[in-house]
Design goal:
Helix content: over 70%
Number of domains: 1
Order of helices and strands: HHHH
Distance between the termini: 9 Å
Number of helices: 4
Structural class: mainly alpha
Strand content: under 5%
Number of strands: 0
Largest sheet: none
Shape: flat
Length: 112
């Protein structure tokens, strides 16, 4: 695995964290969570950029980063905030994962 993918995976986790802290900021009224959100947002962007700098292709790289953030945010919502997700919602999450995997499989770039 290209080392760049490790940066992107970590960036996706950081993306999940900043989205979680945004939720916890209560409409940007809790300054601690606003600061944490901004810090993790910056870290997430930095890590995505490190993936690009490692030579990863833009489309698959961004799709993996966003996919991890999206799926991670849904899971945090369900597990920590009592968000609900019906069968169709879980199917849509599976489509996101399948789409990201599929994009990487059909990419012409050997690093994808």
């Amino acid at each position: 695995m290209n080392r760049g993918w490790m940066w992107v995976l970590a960036g996706g986790v950081a993306e999940t964290a900043w989205a979680t802290f945004m939720k916890m900021s209560d409409g940007f009224t809790d300054i601690l969570y606003v600061v944490l959100m901004l810090a993790f947002l910056a870290v997430s962007m930095y890590l995505l950029n490190m993936g690009f700098r490692a030579g990863l292709p833009t489309g698959p790289c961004y799709a993996v980063w966003v996919g991890i953030g999206a799926v991670g945010s849904v899971l945090v919502g369900v597990l920590a905030f009592d968000d609900t997700l019906n069968l169709a919602g879980w199917a849509c999450i599976a489509l996101i994962v399948g789409g990201v995997v599929g994009l990487n499989l059909v990419s012409d770039d050997p690093e994808a």
